Amino acid sequence: EEVIGELAAYGATELLCYRAERPAELANRQAEAWQPLLDWLALRFDAPLAVTSGVVPKPQSPAALSALRAAIAERSSWELAPLALATQASGSIVLALALAEGRADASAVWALSLLDELYQAELWGEDPEAAARREAIRRDIGAAETFLKLLRRG
Q: pTM value?
């Protein structure tokens, strides 16, 4: 129950729901990359999450958060472990569920979770410390994907 609660709490501040207003190119990238996954979440789990611009929190509907919690709670303990790893690494329960459901692979989840940061690196150049941190995130998401694949085979 504790893990389910921790993972469900990500829905209240879901990464994919907070969009940049500027620059327009980043805002467009976010909308094109993230909105299809939010649409999928709404259809798959009946958990439509509200999108906002900027960093001011926008409350999510209790019904959507409840549906999201139910989607997490239906997972086995074995599935919760990689789901938790992917959620914590990516900062997104939506991306972690997409990975768990085979909707996105580890490479896509990694890139989607770091879309803003990768955009900034394109503009301003690479920071070695940030690159090392991103590589650690890549490994964690990859490990979660491997675990999930092994569970599907079993």
A: 0.95
